[in-house]
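During the no-cost extension, the postdoctoral fellow (Dr. R.K.) reprocessed legacy sequence entries with the updated structure-token encoder. One reprocessed record is reproduced below for audit purposes.
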Amino acid sequence: MKKTIIVSLAVALAACSGNKTNEKSGTLKQAPEKIQEQSAEPVSPTVEESEMIAFEGGRFLMGSANGLPQESPAHEVVVKAFKIDKSPVTVAQFNAFIQATGYTTEAECFGDSGVFSMEKQGWELLKGAFWKKPMGPNGPDAVANHPVTHVSWNDANAYAKWAGKRLPTEMEWEYAARSGKNSGEKFSWGNELEVNGKYFANTWQGEMNAPETKDGYLFTSPVGVFGENEAGLTDMGGNVWQWCADTYKAYPGSAAPIREDQNVKTIRSGSFFYDQYGEDSFSVSGRSGNSHETSLFNTGFRCAMDAN
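Re-encoded structure tokens follow.
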């Protein structure tokens, strides 16, 4: 069984095997005993239903006229009414899903997941890394109120279905990040990452080999700790990349060199970790993609649903 990490657009792509599916991955069955024993203090499975923010929908300019190639061109779209989770799915919420279903994530199936080693200064498939142990078996347990990570697009879809929801479309995600307006602001909270030392999102500061953590967090942070956008949503930029429902492809009329592949899905938001596009990855129009089987220490998700 061959496993690789390919760094592209500052995002790692991992493959479990030559096949795109695996009979052991993404299944509703009991996780292996050795995986379950890695956390001595499991999170409580009792979790209140996540709050959702409703949007009436409408027309807006999606993308950017002066951003990165994959964000261009700006184009008018129409989004239908929908609801979206106020915050990314947390470790506690994901644990409730695992406890209720016995679901086995793809990281558990593969036996490893993508982590950037600060010591080695490179991406690696770290054995034993999964949603409950984001830095591997020897690292700390995932924190209950932080966004869950090491979940693939397939895992995120399984959770969403269990919760009676779905993943947001890329159009819905951007509309929500813009607070349902044709806003010209670069970020969901305004035009600056920080003002007078106050940060508005969990983002990377410093060099790759010398992080500065001016925002107070080297890795994930509690959801909502940096506040809400005008619509009442948190973490619509930074903290973790977030899976969207769509296949990652170039916009109509775009010259971006994106080869459309049904197995590569869109991610939004940027994360706590370094990205080669810097602050553009945190913008409301920032976008990238990853394979549907990929799980990483800086990727999570939030859910959406049609309006009633």
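The longest helix spans residues 91-101. The chain has one domain: 5-14+52-306. The remaining legacy entries will be reprocessed before the final report is submitted.
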